[in-house]
C-alpha cells in the first residue's frame, strides 16, 4: 500500500528529515504512484486531488496479513493485517457480521469524528492484533494513521523534497521518494493531521526523535521513542457543541 499526503494535510515530523538526503517530489506528476504501479502489477491508484494520492495492490501480499481498501462516504482507508477481536469491535460499534477490519477502522474513526465517548488513544489500543492503517477523511482533509504495538506489519514513513508525507508497507517505495529521510513507523503510535504523532500506549508522554544511522554512517531519518520524563498536557476531546469536529481538535 502507498499513501502520499500533501504537507498541508499531514505535516511530516521534523525528525524524519535527514540533513543529506537524495529526495524527490513524490506527488509531482504522480511520480511515486506511477513507480508503485510499475513495481506492483494490478495496482489501483486513488487521486485525492490537491491532498495527495493513495494506492494499493494485492501483489505479493502476505495471506496472513492481507491488504484491504474501502471507501465509506468521504472516508478512504487502507488496512493491512489481522484484528483478533473483530467480534467484540463489531458489537462495540454496532456493525453487522459482514464488516471486516477496514470497515471497523472506518467506523472507529467516524465515532471519534462525530464526538464519540472514547479518546483516540483508547480506540487504537482497543484494536488487538497485527495491523497498520492509513485513513483519509476528505470532508475535513484529515488523516489518521496507526500501527500495532509489536510492529507486526511492515510499515514505513518518510518525507520527500517538498515536505510531503509518504507511507507504505514497502520500504523500497518509501526510499524511492524520500531517500534517507525515512524510518519505520513507530510501533504503538498513531498520527493525526492536527495532533501529530502520539503513543497510544503512553498517551500522556511526549515522543522524541532519535536519529537513525545507516551502515555508511549517515543519518537516515529517526526513530521516535517515548520520553518518560516529558509529559503532555492532558487534553480530552473538548465538548463545544454538536457541530464540533474531533479531527480538528485532537
TrEMBL record:
SUPFAM superfamilies: N-terminal nucleophile aminohydrolases (Ntn hydrolases). Residues 231-250 are annotated as: Disordered. It comes from the Eukaryota. Coiled coil: none annotated. Residues 2-226 form the DUF3700 domain. This is DUF3700 domain-containing protein.
Amino acid at each position: 500500500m502507498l499513501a502520499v499526503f500533501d504537507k498541508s494535510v499531514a505535516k511530516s515530523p521534523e525528525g524524519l528529515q535527514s540533513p543529506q538526503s537524495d529526495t524527490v517530489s513524490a506527488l509531482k506528476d504522480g511520480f511515486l504512484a506511477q513507480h508503485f504501479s510499475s513495481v506492483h502489477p494490478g495496482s489501483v491508484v486513488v487521486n485525492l486531488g490537491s491532498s495527495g494520492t493513495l494506492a494499493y495492490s494485492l501483489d505479493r501480499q502476505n495471506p496472513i496479513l492481507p491488504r484491504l481498501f474501502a471507501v465509506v462516504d468521504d472516508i478512504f482507508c487502507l488496512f493491512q493485517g489481522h484484528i483478533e477481536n473483530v467480534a467484540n469491535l463489531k458489537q462495540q460499534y454496532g456493525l453487522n457480521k459482514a464488516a471486516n477490519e477496514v470497515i471497523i477502522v472506518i467506523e472507529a474513526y467516524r465515532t471519534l469524528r462525530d464526538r464519540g465517548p472514547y479518546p483516540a488513544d483508547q480506540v487504537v489500543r482497543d484494536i488487538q492484533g497485527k495491523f497498520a492503517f492509513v485513513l483519509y477523511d476528505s470532508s475535513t482533509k484529515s488523516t489518521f494513521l496507526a500501527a500495532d504495538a509489536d510492529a507486526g506489519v511492515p510499515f514505513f514513513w518518510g518525507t520527500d523534497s517538498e515536505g510531503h508525507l509518504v507511507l507504505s508497507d514497502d520500504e523500497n517505495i518509501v526510499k524511492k521518494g524520500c531517500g534517507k529521510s525515512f524510518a519505520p513507523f513507530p510501533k504503538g503510535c498513531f498520527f493525526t493531521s492536527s495532533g501529530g504523532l502520539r503513543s497510544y500506549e503512553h498517551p500522556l508522554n511526549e515522543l522524541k526523535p532519535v536519529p537513525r544511522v545507516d551502515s555508511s554512517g549517515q543519518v537516515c531519518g529517526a526513530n521516535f521513542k517515548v520520553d518518560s520524563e516529558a509529559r503532555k498536557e492532558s487534553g480530552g476531546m473538548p465538548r463545544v457543541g454538536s457541530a464540533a469536529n474531533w479531527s480538528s481538535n485532537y
